[in-house]
Amino acid sequence: MDTTILRNRFRQQFGTSGDLYFSPGRINLIGEHTDYNGGFVFPGAVDKGVAIEIYRNGSRKVCLLALDQKEHPYVEFTLDDTSKPEEHWACYVFGVCKELEKHGVALGGFNAAITGDVPAGAGMSSSAALESVFAFALNTMFADSRVDKFELAKIGQATEHNYCGVKCGIMDQFASVFGREGCLIRLDCRSLEYEYFPFNPDGYKLVLINSMVKHSLGNEYNERRESCEKAVALMNREFGGVETLRDANYQMLDTVKGDLSDEDYRRAKYVLDEKERVLAVCAALEKNDYETVGKKMYETHWGLSRDYTVSCPELDFLVETAQECGVTGSRVMGGGFGGCTINLVRDTICEKFVSKAKREYARKFGIVPEIYSVTIGDGSRKLQ
Ligand code: GAF
Questions:
Q1: Domains: count for the chain
Q2: Which of 30, 227, 284, 333 could form a disulfide with 267 if both were Cys (CB 3.0 to 4.6 A apart)?
Q3: What is the pLDDT of residues 118-132, one digit of tens each?
Q4: What is the CATH number of the domain that holds 310?
Q5: Which of 68, 80, 172, 347 is catalytic?
Q6: Is 172 known to be catalytic?
Q7: Do 72 and 162 have their domain in common?
Q8: Cα gap 287→212, rounded to integer Å
Q9: Per the confidence metrics, is the pTM higher than 0.85?
Q10: DSSP for 261-287?
Q11: Does the CB atom of residue 131 touch ligand 1 within 6 A?
Q12: Co-location of 168 and 79 in the same domain
């Protein structure tokens, strides 16, 4: 990312220069809404993210300038404030400060300027990138990097839970902190064991299509999580040992079906289905069998659309268009309710698919979707 503007604006605003840090957004090949259910996910960091310039100011004040915010781009709070700022974007930084302090980090005040190139609301985790970049930078500056990377990811997640109203899982922050160039991360969200998985599918590309329907996770996301928790509580009462849907199976779920609403049952069933799909994708990737990977991606999409109900007509249309074009795999990516589809596309049909998707989508919805070809990059880091 070119940081020239960031540097200039920082100097203009604060009259000094500081250090630069970067954290990326993420993609996820498969394993959606499995993270808070103790399951597996398959994310990777991208080459787009959030960059900050930051400088200790020797006071207790935090002064933030968000270059990409049109309204209220400048916010100040102090480290002693107990209520969060009014500007939603600043709550992410406030939350990270509070969560780092809970980890015993003695923060001092700082000035920071923020910019990014992850499209907001596209399902690529711009918020996790923002949390991670501050967690990483402040840990470096005020704690000599004493807080380990697992805790940094959890600090981002706790920020979402406690200051931003989203009861998210760990996937996004984990991918942002732990990303590695050219690799997907197979992450077990129960144990946090993870493995880097070189991903360079010969003859295929990963392409994101942004429906431009802005997703914002909140109540609807939290409701999905509650549905899963209801099913877990019932199965645990009946069978014991069911802490998350990871511990459940179809037979258990069917036993408690009568006590669940149809909606809750279908959501829990989607998670069990997705659990199996992720394992199937792992096996297929070992054999470079991308056709099976793609088939599972489509299954995930229709599960998310029909059972988990986190899709929308625009995303369904993009996936149907992919299917018509013979794209290997396509599905909504991330929390849903808008944002991008992720597409596994053979090189030979990529151009044709992209231009058809753009044309047909614009014709039907009157919006031209943005296209991003995916480059898998490194996680949180200090820039030189
Ligand atoms: C969002 C959340 F932040 C993640 O934790 C995850 O649940 C994802 O939606 C769905 O897989 O990105």
A1: 2
A2: 227
A3: 988 899 999 999 999
A4: 3.30.70.890
A5: 172
A6: yes
A7: yes
A8: 35
A9: yes
A10: -HHHHHHHHHHHHHHHHHHHHHHHHHT
A11: no
A12: yes
Ligand 1 pocket residue status of 36, Cβ below 6 Å? yes
CA of 88 to the centre of ligand 1 (A): 19
- Residue 27 Cα to ligand 1 middle (Å): 11
- 11-48 confidence digits (pLDDT tens): 999 999 999 999 999 999 999 999 999 999 999 999 99
Asked if residue 173 and residue 244 are part of one domain, the reply reads: no
Task: Tell whether ligand 1 has an atom less than 6 A from the beta carbon of residue 184.
Answer: no
Q: 43 and 140, same structural domain?
A: yes
Q: Which residues contact 26 (CB under 8 A, 6 or more apart)?
A: 43, 44, 45, 46, 124, 125, 128, 171, 172, 175, 176, 179
110 and 69 in one domain? yes
Residues 199-230, buried b or exposed e (16+ Cβ, 10 A)? beeeebbbbbbbbbbebebeeebbebbebbbb
Quick one: 168 and 210 in the same domain?
Answer: no
Task: Say if ligand 1 is within 6 A of residue 171 CB.
Answer: yes
**CB-based contact 274:246 (threshold 8 Å):** no
Is the pLDDT at 216 greater than 80? The verdict is no
Which residue's alpha carbon is at the smallest distance from atom 3 of ligand 1? 168
Using CA positions, which residue lies closest to atom 2 of ligand 1?
A: 168
Q: Verify whether ligand 1 is closer than 6 Å to residue 39 (CB atom).
A: no
CATH number at residue 18: 3.30.230.10
For residues 336 and 215, state if they share a domain.
yes
pLDDT class of 139 with cuts at 50, 70, 90: very high
Boundaries of domain holding 300? 204-373
121 lines ligand 1 (CB under 6 A): no
228 and 151 housed in the same domain: no
The rounded Å distance from CA 31 to ligand 1 centre is: 10
